[in-house]
Amino acid sequence: MKPRVGIFSLSSCEGCQLQILNMEEELLDLVQAIDLVSFREAMDPISGEYDIALVEGAVTRESEIPVLQEIRRKADVLVAMGACAAAAGVIGLRNLRSPEENLRRVYGEHPDVADDVTVARPLDEVVEVDYYIRSCPIDRDEFLHLIKSLLMGKEPYDPNYPVCVECRIDENVCLYDLNDGEFCQGPVTRAGCGALCPGFGSACMGCRGLVDDANVESMIDIMVEAGIDEREARRRLELFHAGPEGKKNDNGED
Ligand code: SF4
Ligand code: SF4
Question: What is the chain's mean pLDDT, rounded?
Answer without folding.
Answer: 90
